[in-house]
Design brief:
Blueprint (H helix, E strand, L loop, with lengths): L2 E9 L16 H13 L5 E3 L8 E11 L5 H11 L4 E9 L11 E10 L12 E3 L5 H8 L4 E4 L14 E13 L8 E9 L6 H13 L7 H8 L14 E7 L1
Parallel strand pairs: 3-10, 5-6
Antiparallel strand pairs: 1-3, 1-4, 2-3, 5-9, 5-10, 7-8, 8-9
Helix pairs in contact: 1-2, 3-4
Length: 253
């Protein structure tokens, strides 16, 4: 009798081409499917809650799979982690009611983006942050971010070529925390930007961060964020922040 298994997974995304299967490299989806198929004895398809891009990390990505093997969920977790690469771990496996779909059943997601400023970035941070050599005005960034709260058309922060039916999304929380980095940590700042909402367009969080970084650098006024949002024009927003600073923290159901 087929079961629906919900997998909560974490991964260090540096060496992957992203979540989704790609012909030109190793993806998270393909790696999970290969490990699950060996246990199942036949090919399986894994559905992910979010299609993270190449280089993006996850602390709590969720996937679902239809599975017929009678193995218990605890043994399944152990068996998968025994064969998966160290950069990909299954944190939990839970049997779910029929009809559960990791993507379609999700009600919200939480993303975290990390920025380090200062002359030096530690080799232990470099894969997980966007390093900027100049300081950012966190207060100005927080002021600009207020325009993004609530339900809006986020077309200005959507990657080109996206084929979604609508670019209307809802941001419930956008929080920017700032701490000082003291020598010998290189000096400068560590900014942690958390964005929670109903759903996100491709590159939406990274484009928001890139725009807010321009506000923090003094290249835009905080009020310009509202103008960019209203324009619905990707060309009006800032650059796409690098993938390595982004983490999918949690998926809500």
């Amino acid at each position: 009798m087929p079961r629906i298994i919900k997998l909560t997974v974490a991964y260090e995304g540096t060496d992957y081409v992203g979540w989704q299967w790609q012909p030109n490299g190793v993806s998270i989806q393909a790696t999970l499917e290969a490990a699950l198929s060996r246990i199942e004895g036949s090919a399986v398809t894994v559905v992910g809650a979010g299609r993270t891009d190449a280089g993006v990390h996850a602390l709590g990505q969720v996937a679902s799979v239809r599975f017929e093997h009678a193995i218990g969920v605890g043994d399944l977790t152990r068996a998968l982690n025994a064969t998966l690469p160290a950069s990909l771990r299954v944190l939990a496996a839970v049997e779910m009611p029929d009809g559960f779909d990791a993507r379609g059943s999700a009600t919200g997601k939480l993303y975290r983006y990390q920025v380090l400023t200062g002359a030096i970035v530690s080799p232990f941070d470099r894969r997980y942050v966007w390093h900027l050599p100049y300081p950012l005005d966190g207060a100005a960034m927080r002021a600009g971010s207020e325009a993004l709260l609530g339900e809006h058309d986020f077309a200005a922060f959507r990657a080109g070529g996206s084929d979604v039916k609508t670019s209307v999304r809802r941001i419930d929380r956008l929080q920017i925390d700032e701490t000082r980095r003291e020598p010998p940590d290189g000096g400068g700042q560590r900014l942690t930007i958390e964005v929670a909402g109903s759903g996100f367009l491709r590159h939406m969080v990274r484009n928001i961060v890139g725009t807010l970084a321009e506000v923090g650098a003094g290249r835009r006024a905080p009020a310009d964020v509202a103008r960019v949002l209203a324009s619905q024009d990707r060309g009006e927003a800032g650059p796409t922040a690098p993938a390595e600073g982004l983490f999918l923290v949690r998926v809500d159901y």
